[in-house]
Each structure stands twice: as structure tokens, then as C-alpha cells.
Design goal:
The chain is built from 10 helices and 8 strands. The strands form 2 sheets. Strands 1, 2, 3, 4, 5 and 6 form a 6-stranded mixed β-sheet that branches. The chain is globular. The protein is an alpha/beta fold. Helix 2 crosses helix 4, helix 2 crosses helix 10 and helix 5 packs parallel to helix 10. Helix 7 links the parallel strand 5 and strand 6.
Amino acid sequence: MTLSDAKITEIFYLIDEFCNEFEQTIKKHTLGKQPKKKPIMSCSEVIALMIVFHSGGYRNMKHFYCFYVQKHMTHLFPKTVSYNRFVELMQAATLPMTLFSKTCMGESTGISFIDSTPIRVCKNKRIKRNKVFKGIAELGKSTMGYFFGFKLHLVVNDKGELLNFVITKGNVDDREPLKNKRFVNELKGKLYADKGYLSKDLANLLFLDGLHLITSIRNNMKNVLMEMKDKIMLRKRSVIETINDELKNMCQVEHSRHRSFTNFINNLISGLIAYTFFPKKPAIKYDPIETNQMAIF
């Protein structure tokens, strides 16, 4: 998927408006003199290019920048720097880009889905030789086996919009982020999850904050009464799995070529932002019908 010039301009405008406010806020709380010389490429341009990279299906940032941006996008980005300098500017843009990602989140509709997906930083046979993430990443286990890296915890609504995300080490339990009120503060209604989120204490804790956690049950558990619409919604959880698949295969949030932790964060955050600008997202059709029927799960 290649973005049009109009779409790239729209993305740049939104980022530039945010970066201008960010810089003004930083100046008010910064002591000492500010550097007078500004970089040739602004922070807005750097972030916009990172988002365009993850929206176009490119696999290599250096190839994208040197052979596409500097040759075919000069009408949009006339002043470019060397690739080494661009990498330095990318690292400097980490904070504003992370804050900007929070402005791209959708709104809770009362129907939310949560899931975690492993973000591998290297292949399993190279775990012992990995030096970039030594002491940072951890060995974890998913339904696909063991992996070395991190976990991306996502919450989405029925429209396929991202509501919130958090990055943890690979060995962190899936239920841990839900115990943080800042992660679920904006959620309301019902939250659908898989068996990995089963916890009576957690469900009671969330219910006190107005959030109803609904999960499927394990094979060795007794059947429970459940509304028919909740049973149907649990079958619609594939929407968040589809989103995870698009993030990995279209937005390239996961690869094993990182040379620093900052590079990893930049790649992941810019990939998430790129997804929020997709014109068509995985979604479900939901037409609520009031009924008194109950289903035995």
C-alpha cells in the first residue's frame, strides 16, 4: 500500500501541529539557553517519514530513505540529510513520537478486545549470542512456543481502532497490564479476552471500575451461564488477532535487525501509528438486540 501525496501531507500536518505544541511546552520547562541552530530536517519530517515507511510495505529503512525518499519524494521533502544523520534524528524524535501515538488512539465504544502478541528480537537459535537486548528482553512463552523479546499488549474496539497499548518483557503475565488503572482508565463496558486472562480477582477488580471482563473457560472448568451476545462476541475475538497480523506483516513492528533498544522502540511506535492511519481496518458488525435469553457456555 503506497500512500498518496495528499495522505502524506495530511499525516505531516497533524504531526507538525503536535510537534509545535510539544516544543513550546518543552521551552517553558527547560532551564538554560536553547540551541539556536536547528536541524535541516525537522522533527515533524522525521516522524512523518518513519510512518510512511511502515505504511508502504518496505522492509529496509536505509533502502527506503536513500533510494525512494531522496529520489522520488524530493517534492515533499526537498531538504534531506545523510542516512547516518537521519538515524540520529530518529533517536531524537522518540519522545515526541511516543506522545503523539497517544493522540492517535480511538474512543471506547463499550465493546473492547484485549490480547498480547510476542515481539521477537532474534531467532531462537541466536538467543544466547544476542548482545543488543541482553539484560532488557526476556525469554517468554506463547502458544507458538518459546521466544526472546517483548510482549505487545493491545486493546482495540469493535471498529478495529487501537484504544491503548503497553510493551512489557516477554516473561510478564498477560494479566499484569490490566492491574494498572492507567491502562484501562479510558475503557468502559465489556472487555473480551481469551483463556489467558482468566482470574476471578482481576475480574472483580475491573468490575469495581465499571469494566466487565469476559473470557472463555478452560476445558476442565464447569460451564457458566453467559448471555448469547457475549458468547458471540468471544467468537469475534479474531478481529484483534487480525490486527496483530497486520502490525507484524504490513507495518513491520517485528524484525531481528535492531542495533539498539531506541531503534526497537522507534520501529514499534511508528508501526502502531502507521496502522491508525489505515483507511480500512478489521472490524465487526454489531447490531445490539435486547433479549432475555441466556446461553450455557
